[in-house]
Design brief:
Elements: E1 16-19, E2 22-25, H1 37-55, H2 60-71, E3 75-76, E4 80-82, E5 85-91, E6 99-104, E7 110-114, E8 125-132, E9 138-145, E10 152-157, E11 176-178, E12 184-189, E13 206-211, E14 221-223, E15 231-236, E16 242-250, E17 253-260, E18 268-271, E19 278-283, E20 286-291, E21 299-303, E22 314-317, E23 324-331, E24 334-341, E25 344-351, E26 358-360, E27 367-372, E28 379-386, E29 389-397, E30 404-408, E31 418-426, E32 432-440, E33 451-454, H3 469-476, E34 480-484, H4 494-498, H5 506-521, E35 530-535, H6 537-548, E36 555-559, H7 578-581, H8 587-596, E37 610-616, H9 625-637, E38 644-649, H10 660-678
Parallel strand pairs: 33-34, 33-35, 35-36, 36-37, 37-38
Antiparallel strand pairs: 1-2, 3-5, 4-5, 5-6, 6-7, 8-9, 9-10, 11-12, 12-13, 13-14, 15-16, 16-17, 17-18, 19-20, 20-21, 21-22, 23-24, 24-25, 25-26, 27-28, 28-29, 29-30, 31-32, 32-34
Helix pairs in contact: 2-3, 2-10, 5-6
Length: about 675
């Protein structure tokens, strides 16, 4: 291992904040100011150090060349069938961004509709979302730049590809529902900066209506949630009568409203102020309502939209003890039901009353993506992927239960060379946690394998088997991949989510630490051959396990992370996450956060493992200040010669819409760091 790096000089301030009677030193608060010339100069020096060390690693060029080959394995989405047309996204070869195509008819030709690669030579313009009109004639779509996800809504005519003049800004992550006659649509957007107090531009999302050809500045507001942090979404019944408005109040509480547009009456609550989540669609005059109310693994009700009171709800798909009802679609005569069983997908079909349940065979242990079909159609589309199965889309002709190949991503990959196992291990409190372990067939358990351990554990998000081009690089060279399903995720329902949030967040960290201990105990690896990696909430996870158990790992990769948990809620959109983490402004929640906030638990003189902190300049979700402050604190504190490196990328955001060339740069740096620190030959 190389000698201790010569880190750029970092000023240490004397800032101290008093929170609930406790003095909290914050010596690197000045690094919160990303536009300050001092911060920019310091960041440039850190980037230069990182680049100088990583470019000197032997074999880096070979790693980059192989990653370039692997990233040329394309990407594919499930088609959205609309009135005889099929809209889907595909990225081929070395294209920076996926292209939106339309296929004319079931066996027709594919035609490019929106190609972001032609809009921007740098590849930093991304297609964020799209919605075809109900007759397939028009398309609404959002574009953003530099990974900002700040979408600008565009419209075009599908037949000619000609743009319409309407443009609507501030449509980040928009929900959109077309009128049946395509004359307008309901949609969500954020207010203009002048319409809200300074600093609240990331909040106050509301539902509006736009009539084609009119000035969007005059679009009427249809629905505004009671609180600025609440997140509304919108849908419309196929006949245009029922407007469905879902309002996410927290990550485990969603209200649902219905508005009868034909009657012109106000929206009425179907479910509000209940400790559960709700989502639904009105089809053929009936509301299909999925909820985890009194059912942590979810159930499905039928509701009369004209009489939506709870006493009239009729259960048609009961909750299962062994599986989570992950989603549903009403497609022609069938209910398509997607489940998670032991963190892997299952697909079942039932009639519209929930009867006659039939299993759809899936290729192997893996994950569904993009379940789609028309409410009055006769075909179901579903995407499937796994660790050794690139994205593949199947078409199922109802009432059959065997899908046929629609399109796949081609890759020179032999799945028989690899083994995918699912194991269980006890966490600190005895809770059984599952974990996927992937490696070459016949790997020796001699305690010397290099292992890449990754996790997430938050926001009800599930870590299910999915194809990763860069993980193939690791597997090809004899590495082991381990991905545990830790608490805070959604793999086992809402109780599993709540077991790793707010005051129980430490369970997420304990589950991940127990995974590392199991891999060592079962002789897959040893600490000097073990790397941990995670991003966003997974970056928080990495920061916590790094500061709590530094001796377990040789290297830790911390991407776009949250690390200062006492101040996180003051930046960008982070107040939206208070229901998941809590806020230091509340005395009890301060105690939870203070107990694990990674930045505040770095200790002087500890021999920390090698750390790569990666963040991005245009991140509109997690402020880069977290990575900057943590890099400064760790560099000052560690007694180890292992490097603590910061990588801040320009013209990039949280990850969505990142062009392929920037992905290649980032992955080259990340894997160079991991190979180097674990002593793996390229």
């Amino acid at each position: 291992m190389s000698s201790r790096p010569s880190y750029p000089p970092t000023s240490r301030g004397d800032e101290v904040e008093i929170l609930h009677g406790e003095s909290i030193p914050d010596p690197y608060r000045w690094l919160e100011q990303g536009d300050d010339p001092r911060t920019q100069a310091w960041t440039a020096d850190q980037n230069a150090l990182t680049e100088s060390l990583l470019t000197a690693v032997p074999g880096r060029a070979r790693l980059r060349a192989r990653l370039d080959e692997l990233l040329s394995i394309g990407a594919l989405s499930t088609p959205e069938p609309v009135a005889g047309r099929y809209f889907y996204q595909r990225r081929d070869g070395r294209q920076n961004q996926p292209v939106l195509y339309v296929r004319e008819g079931r066996d027709g030709e594919d035609r490019s509709l929106v190609d972001p690669n032609r809009l921007d030579a740098q590849g930093t313009t991304a297609l964020d979302w799209f919605y075809p009109s109900e007759d397939g004639r028009l398309l609404a779509y959002g574009l953003s730049e530099n990974g900002s996800e700040q979408s600008l809504l565009h419209l075009l005519e599908v037949d000619s590809g000609a743009p319409l003049p309407d443009r609507i800004p501030r449509t980040r992550a928009a929900d959109l529902a077309w009128l049946p006659d395509s004359s307008g649509f309901y949609y969500t957007r954020y207010p203009a900066p002048a319409e809200v107090p300074a600093g609240e531009e990331h909040y106050h999302r509301a539902v509006y209506f736009h009539r084609l050809g009119t000035d969007p500045a005059g679009d009427p507001q249809v629905f505004r949630p009671a609180e600025k942090e609440h997140w509304p979404g919108v849908g419309l019944s196929p006949d245009g009568r029922w407007l469905v408005i879902g309002v996410a109040r927290t990550f485990d509480q969603t209200d649902l409203y219905l508005q009868d547009l034909a009657a012109g009456t106000p929206a009425v609550p179907v479910a509000s102020d209940l400790p559960a989540t709700f989502d639904g669609d009105v089809v053929r005059g009936r509301l299909y309502l999925r909820t985890n109310l009194d059912a942590p693994t979810y159930r499905l009700y039928l509701v009369d939209p004209e009489r939506p009171a709870r006493e009239g709800w009729r259960e048609i798909v009961p909750p299962r003890a062994d599986a989570v009802l992950d989603g549903f679609r009403v497609i022609g005569p069938a209910l398509a039901l997607s489940y998670l069983e032991r963190a892997a997908s299952r697909l079942r079909l039932a009639d519209l009353e929930g009867n006659g349940v039939r299993e759809v065979a899936l290729p192997t242990i893996g994950s569904l993506f993009g379940l789609s079909g028309e409410w009055d159609g006769d075909e179901v589309f579903y995407g499937f992927t796994s660790y050794t199965v690139p994205p593949t889309v199947y078409r199922l002709a109802l009432p059959e239960t065997t899908g046929e190949l629609w399109r796949r991503v081609e890759a020179d990959l032999d799945p028989s060379r690899y083994e995918v196992r699912q194991v269980s291990y006890p966490s600190r409190d005895g809770t059984e946690v599952t974990m996927f372990v992937v490696h070459r067939t016949g790997v020796s358990r001699d305690g010397a394998n290099p292992v890449y351990l990754s996790g997430y554990g938050g926001f009800n998000i599930s870590m299910t088997p999915a194809f990763s081009r860069s993980l193939l690089l690791w597997l090809e060279r004899g590495g082991v991949v381990a991905i545990p399903n830790i608490r805070g995720g959604g793999e086992y329902g809402e109780a599993w989510h709540q077991g790793g949030m707010l005051g129980t967040k430490q369970n997420s960290f304990d589950d991940f630490i127990a995974a590392a201990e199991w891999l060592i105990r079962e002789r897959y690896t040893r600490p000097d051959r073990l790397a941990a990696a995670g991003g966003s909430n997974g970056g928080l996870l990495m920061g916590a396990v790094l500061t709590q158990r530094p001796e377990l790992f040789a290297a830790v990769v911390i991407q776009v992370p949250l690390l200062d948990m006492l101040r996180y809620h003051r930046f960008l959109i982070a107040r939206l996450w208070i229901p998941e983490y809590g806020s230091a402004e509340d005395p009890e929640q301060f105690r939870w956060l203070r107990a694990y906030s990674p930045y505040h638990h770095v200790r002087d003189g500890v021999a920390y493992p090698a750390v790569l902190l990666a963040t991005a300049e245009s991140d509109t979700r997690v402020d880069p200040m977290h990575a900057r402050k943590m890099a400064a604190r760790l560099q000052a504190a560690t007694s180890s010669d292992r490097p603590v490196l910061l990588r801040l990328e320009a013209q990039a955001g949280h990850g969505a819409g990142k062009p392929l060339n920037k992905v290649l740069d980032e992955l080259t740096d990340t894997w160079t760091f991991v190979f180097w620190q674990l002593g793996v030959e390229v």
